């Protein structure tokens, strides 16, 4: 048994205050490689967008709370338009509610550029305006 007088002092755990706030936003851009095409017409499966949401949510948690956080749930996932190999997509996450440990987040994938095979195998064009491909709401938690 350890004598309380000789036991090392324990410091209370100190966590930095959260920087999470409604309206805080993180955005990623990435090229969709042809190796990710899963269906005819170089279509990419919907899981590609969900994985991208996980990546942008991880950065959002790091920025706000200094931790990668964990995804708790998705709700209202909408596949509105196709994502295909050769696209450049922009993935955003915006905090819409801040709880003590939870952050409710709106997600969106927009196609900002797309391959243009009519002009040649490596041709591409910017989309103006970008096409909203996938939206969702999710909840992440931080320790």
UniProtKB/TrEMBL annotation:
Keywords: Hydrolase. It comes from Terrabacter lapilli. This is HotDog ACOT-type domain-containing protein. Pfam families: 4HBT (PF03061). PROSITE patterns: HOTDOG_ACOT. Transmembrane segments: none annotated. Residues 22-143 form the HotDog ACOT-type domain. It comes from the Bacteria.
């Amino acid at each position: 048994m350890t004598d309380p007088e000789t036991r090392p002092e324990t410091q209370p755990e100190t966590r930095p205050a959260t920087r999470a706030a409604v309206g805080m936003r993180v955005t990623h851009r990435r090229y969709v490689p042809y190796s990710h095409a899963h269906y005819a017409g170089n279509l990419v499966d919907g899981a590609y967008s969900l994985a991208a949401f996980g990546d942008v949510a991880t950065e959002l948690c790091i920025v706000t709370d200094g931790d990668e956080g964990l995804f708790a749930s998705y709700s209202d996932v909408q596949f509105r338009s196709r994502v295909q190999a050769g696209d450049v997509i922009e993935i955003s996450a915006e905090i819409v509610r801040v709880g003590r440990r939870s952050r409710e987040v709106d997600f969106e994938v927009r196609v900002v550029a797309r391959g243009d095979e009519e002009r040649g195998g490596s041709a591409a064009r910017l989309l103006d305006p970008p096409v909203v491909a996938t939206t969702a709401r999710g909840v992440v938690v931080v320790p």
